[in-house]
Amino acid sequence: MFEVLSCYLMAQAVTFQKNYNATDKNTADNPIEIISDEDGYLISVTLFCKDSLNKEFSCDVMLRTDTLGNEIWKKSYENLGLRMQKISNNGFLVAGEIYSDTGSMITVTKIDVDGSIISQIKYAIDSLKHSVLDIKDLMDGTLMLQGFGRTGQYNTHPWIMKINEAGNKLWDKQVEINSEQYFGEGFSVLSNGDLAFGYRFSSIFNFEETLALTRTDSLGNAIWTKTYQTNENDYCNAKMTPLLDNGFVLGYCDPNWNVGDILLHLFGTDSLGNLEWEYVFPKRSPRLYRLITASNGDIIGCGVQAIEIGKQGDYGMLFRMTKDGELLWKRAYRPDQPIPGNILSRLNNVVETLDGGIAAIGIMLDSFPGGGISGDVWLLKVAADGCFTPGCTDSILTAAVEPTGGIYKSERQVFFRLSPNPVNDEARLAFYNQAPKNAAVRVFNAQGQPVREQEVPAGSGETVVDFSGLPAGLYSIVFEIEGKIVQAEKIVKL
Q: What is the pTM of this model?
């Protein structure tokens, strides 16, 4: 894991924030998905457009930027979809459901790197297939669509459809989850081809909903289903991402009326869905919109964070934690909102970038030259530790860390990872971001006496501390910036 992490930390990730109008009209832009590649970012946006008769209809926009967030092109489509996947021949597949006076259809569209439509296939929707929720690349020239459908007025279920890169259907299947109502929020294709569904379900005749995880084989046949928490029916978002070791992390809301709030609750499981750890964020929890797994195995989430108790408004939110449920950081961000008044923003989706940073897409407020206020597309790009600059000395940050820790684990800010521990000769500190100026590492023995001290050159992605010659025992490694201790770790010398 250290080798993977250090590759991303050799260079400082580019950071920025941008906002865009999906159209020049006074419409509320709602970005749904983002793809990061070597050329920049592709963002899908849904909004309402008007035809020549001033009739309002849902339309889709694709927005392409370079790696610095500068807009390259944007294009509007009447019938496209919002679920995106890059494909091997230098283009993209976009899937979704479209609506018209003649009925609804599932559509799979192939577009080139300039946004021009190459081909489009439409499938008539029956009651069993509806609402495309996700599209995944199976890495063998085929892709998997996932959505939900209905078998009655209230009964819902997940479905999957396998297609090739041209969008042609190979087969489809209704997935049985043994529940009357399925509300899909998380879908993944695992390394062995199995499928995983993270969702909430409920009975038609009660006011409760349950967080669940179902694993199937590659053909959608259920292997097992596990449940984790049942709430009042308050329409909580349920999110899921697979771990690199074949476990899973699920996010759900946790009504706790003793503290007067609905808290964000995370569940970590093994590959069989057995619960291994839980983490509950403190009061004024964020609302979770997306969970992803980083290349080093960490979990990254995005959503919205209430500003302060008693004040109106919302900030965009990001957090990062280890696969074992240790929160590394959680930060709230204030967009560069050009209008006065309450900050109203959120982050809908997040991706890890090729430079090891994090890019998130969401909504912020902006005004129009002719008057009126509406939502803009907001693109936020930060480093791996969630900072714009080392140490997070940024005006955009409203909270570097939460003032109180989670219920199950203490929350703290992390600047480096330490390995190995225990240590024989050398210990390595891998920094989440390049070391700033005036940084140093100090080592203390169990009696609090300094035994090692060394400067860390600015721009370093890692540093090595020599423990040879020191007696066996317990030591502390302290990382300082400008003489201020920002992180301390215990280490055992063998």
A: 0.77
